[in-house]
């Protein structure tokens, strides 16, 4: 189907000023461009998890799968392996992929499965009204930490570099043009693409006054250098007042999990022979 409205008429319940709108409209613009370039949107699947971000599956008019909390990536992996022709975009939250689903995130990067993961990193559990997440800054005062969290946040970019992700980027919902380029780059990349997106939560973590003066464009950064990517990832620790680089930190070509799997694909005859041999061995 072509030319359909990409934004659905489902009532939108995000708070006014929520950064999820920026991601939704960035994806809408990308999907419009893909369609104009001759790509069928029937070949695109959006997977979301649980959290405020996940409602994007209701608000974008493409094939979508609303998964369980923390299980966006296994669902996206299954979809990609079942039909490698599909473009699979995973929208996940920091609670969804940095807490509940962290092991899935790490193993998807390790496998280099060809999916694009956009983490709506608002650094707070918004849907459940303001508890701290793994990327909340030290001292964050929320519903579960009224005196301020005592934990340092972890750095998802460092984690993804160490886990083997082949496209690692950071965007910001107040820089929509740049974010569009980062997501398009991730979709075009063959392999596991990870875009940590600093997303404003207007209600529980309205951090624009903190981010906006600190962000800068990583123009001129050598994305092919793993060492330089690590240095850039460590520049800001998600808690300090250091500058925050936005752009692609790292990209490399590497065989994907789905390519390796396709190479191992057996003919029907070979599969039947293998099953008979297995049954004979167990008899
Ligand atoms: Fe957006 Fe925060 Fe409201 Fe959730 S609680 S819809 S993340 S502003």
How many E-type strands? 8
Query: N-to-C SSE series?
Result: HEHEHEHHEHEHEHEHEHH
Q: How much helicity do the residues have?
A: 25-40%
Query: How are the strands ordered across the major sheet?
Result: 2-1-3-4-6-5-8-7
Largest sheet: 8 strands, mixed
Describe the structure in your own words.
With 283 residues, this protein is α/β, with parallel strands linked by helices. It has one domain: 3-Layer(aba) Sandwich (Rossmann fold), CATH 3.40.50. It is 37% helix and 16% strand. It has eleven helices and eight strands. Helix 9 (226-235) links the parallel strand 7 and strand 8. The model has no long low-confidence stretch (mean pLDDT 95). Bound molecules: iron/sulfur cluster. Iron/sulfur cluster binds next to loops.
Question: Topology, please?
Answer:
Blueprint: H1 20-36, E1 44-48, H2 56-59, E2 63-66, H3 72-82, E3 87-93, H4 94-100, H5 102-111, E4 116-121, H6 156-163, E5 167-172, H7 176-188, E6 193-198, H8 208-211, E7 215-217, H9 226-235, E8 244-251, H10 257-263, H11 268-282
Parallel strand pairs: 1-2, 1-3, 3-4, 4-6, 5-6, 7-8
Antiparallel strand pairs: 5-8
Helix pairs in contact: 1-7, 4-5
Bound molecules: iron/sulfur cluster (SF4).
């Amino acid at each position: 189907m072509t030319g359909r409205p990409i934004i659905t008429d489902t009532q939108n319940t995000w708070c006014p000023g929520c950064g999820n709108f920026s991601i939704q409209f960035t994806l809408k613009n990308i999907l419009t461009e893909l369609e104009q370039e001759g790509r069928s949107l029937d070949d695109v699947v959006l997977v979301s998890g649980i959290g405020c971000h996940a409602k994007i599956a209701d608000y974008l008019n493409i094939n979508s799968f609303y998964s369980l909390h923390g299980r966006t990536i296994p669902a996206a992996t299954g979809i990609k392996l079942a039909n490698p022709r599909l473009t699979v975009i995973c929208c996940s939250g920091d609670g969804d992929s940095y807490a509940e689903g962290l092991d899935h995130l790490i193993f998807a990067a390790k496998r280099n499965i060809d999916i694009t993961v956009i983490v709506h990193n608002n650094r707070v559990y918004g849907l459940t009204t303001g508890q701290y997440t793994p990327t909340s800054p030290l001292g964050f005062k929320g519903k579960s930490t009224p005196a301020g969290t005592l934990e340092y946040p972890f750095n998802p970019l460092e984690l993804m570099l160490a886990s083997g992700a082949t496209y690692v980027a950071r965007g910001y919902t107040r820089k929509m043009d740049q974010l569009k380029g980062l997501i398009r780059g991730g979709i075009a990349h063959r392999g596991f693409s990870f875009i940590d997106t600093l997303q404003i939560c207007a209600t529980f973590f309205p951090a624009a006054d903190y981010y906006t003066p600190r962000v800068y464009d990583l123009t001129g950064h050598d994305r092919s250098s793993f060492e330089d990517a690590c240095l850039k990832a460590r520049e800001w620790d998600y808690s300090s007042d250091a500058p925050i680089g936005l752009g692609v930190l790292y990209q490399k070509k590497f065989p994907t999990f789905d390519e390796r799997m396709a190479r191992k694909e057996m003919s029907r005859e070979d599969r039947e022979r293998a099953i008979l041999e297995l049954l004979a061995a167990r008899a």
